[in-house]
């Protein structure tokens, strides 16, 4: 459905939307440009306008497709039903890392993935201020900043950092899992923008990520990027991660199956104990 030429064309759409709707507002937001959807969950005029631009241009690029975007779902959760429908679905996060964007940090990205029948076909992860771009095409590979992407080779124990969200975002009672990972000798660190972390995992700068929530717009692009870079992703119970939800949490994206299994076993053991 998507060719390498199409991959480049959609990248151009994403870059142009950032130039028009996102970057002009970076470090230029007024108080009235920012609202709160919930605790620690801001949304800006840039998020909303970028998502609308992406909706218009992506559905025009692929007639008959639909968009599941973060801001649309926040207004109407029934939008998520499209993930299990027949039409091709663009999964969109106009600004992943909105809190960073509001604070004036360049650690944010625009995430786009194309899914058909719940199966990821292509993805784009663009961090405009950091000038980083990750793309992936199912069955053909992953690229970051124009070069083929490859996860780190496996080591025992994992030699590179494992990253996760702050424990405040972990499911109730699962904070023990964070302590257990540290006790197992793993180098565990917090991250602030998961789209950028997926980029780092795909190019061999991380051993694994522990993801404690399953909003598809946060993960779809990175899941395909990591998979096509040779990585492994599994829910806590070892099952494949489903875009439409219902996964056993947290799920793990890792450089190799052994690392993913180790992390899952440590977390599961801590919960069972």
UniProtKB/TrEMBL annotation:
Protein name in UniProt: inositol-phosphate phosphatase
PANTHER family named in the record: INOSITOL MONOPHOSPHATASE (PTHR20854), INOSITOL-1-MONOPHOSPHATASE-RELATED (PTHR20854:SF4)
EC number(s) on file: 3.1.3.25
Catalytic activity, reaction form: a myo-inositol phosphate + H2O = myo-inositol + phosphate
Top EC class, one word: hydrolase
Keywords: Magnesium, Metal-binding
Pfam families, alphabetized: Inositol_P
InterPro entries per the UniProt record, alphabetical: Inositol_monophosphatase-like (IPR000760), Inositol_monophosphatase_CS (IPR020550)
């Amino acid at each position: 459905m998507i060719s390498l030429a199409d991959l480049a064309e959609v990248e151009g759409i994403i870059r142009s939307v950032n130039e028009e709707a996102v970057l002009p507002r970076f470090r230029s937001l007024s108080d009235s440009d920012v609202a709160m959807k919930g605790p620690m969950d801001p949304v800006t005029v840039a998020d909303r306008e970028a998502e609308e631009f992406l909706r218009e241009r992506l559905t025009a690029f692929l007639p008959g497709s639909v968009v599941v975007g973060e801001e649309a779902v926040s207004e109407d959760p029934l939008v998520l039903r499209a993930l299990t429908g027949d039409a091709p679905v663009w999964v969109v996060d106009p600004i992943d890392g909105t809190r960073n964007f509001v604070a004036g940090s360049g650690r944010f990205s625009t995430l786009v993935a194309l899914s058909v029948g719940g199966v990821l076909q292509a993805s784009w992860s663009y961090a405009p201020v950091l000038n980083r771009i990750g793309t992936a095409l199912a069955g053909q590979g992953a690229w970051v900043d124009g070069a083929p992407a490859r996860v780190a080779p496996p080591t025992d124990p994992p030699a590179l950092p494992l990253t996760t969200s702050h424990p405040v975002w972990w499911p109730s009672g699962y904070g023990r899992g964070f302590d257990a990972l540290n006790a197992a000798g793993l180098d565990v660190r917090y991250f602030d923008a998961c789209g950028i972390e997926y980029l780092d995992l795909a190019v061999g700068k991380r051993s694994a990520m522990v993801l404690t929530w399953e909003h598809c717009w946060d993960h779809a692009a990175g899941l395909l990027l990591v998979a096509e870079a040779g990585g492994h992703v599994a829910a806590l119970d070892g099952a494949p991660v489903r875009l439409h939800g219902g996964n056993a949490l947290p799920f793990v994206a890792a450089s190799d199956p052994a690392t993913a299994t180790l992390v899952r076993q440590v977390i599961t053991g801590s919960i069972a104990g």
